[in-house]
């Protein structure tokens, strides 16, 4: 049976052959596993957190109002509000 390290051959730009040993393969596997696990856990934690922007407007949303959340630089805020009022014919 051929070792896993013998089947992985990496050739760099100087045409030298590098064959990783078992410790290198273990390092690669644990790094990828840790990255995957960390990403999964952080996604699950983020999904469990509530959105405070929506909490502040929850009553208006329940009453059928539309919530518009803008993420624009403050210097463009007035321009964006004017554009939205013009496009949707709003008078607020």
Give a quick summary of the entry:
By secondary structure, this protein is mainly alpha-helical. The protein has helices at residues 4-7, 22-48, 52-56, 58-62, 77-88; strands at residues 10-11, 17-18. It contains five helices and two strands; from the N terminus they run H-E-E-H-H-H-H.
Describe the fold and architecture.
This protein has five helices and two strands, in the order H-E-E-H-H-H-H. With 92 residues, the chain is mostly helical. It has a two-stranded antiparallel ribbon. The longest helix is centred in the middle third of the chain and has 27 residues, at 22-48. The protein is elongated.
* Number of E-state strands: 2
Q: Percent of residues in helical segments?
A: 55-70%
The best one-word shape is elongated
- Roughly how many Å is the radius of gyration? 27 Å
Percentage of residues in DSSP E strands: under 5%
Structural class: mainly alpha
Summed up, the helix count is 5
Mean pLDDT: 79
Given as residue ranges, the uncertain stretches (5+ residues, pLDDT < 50) are none
Order of strands, main sheet, comes to 1-2
N-to-C SSE string, H for helix and E for strand = HEEHHHH
Q: Span between N and C termini? A: 76 Å
Largest sheet: 2 strands, antiparallel
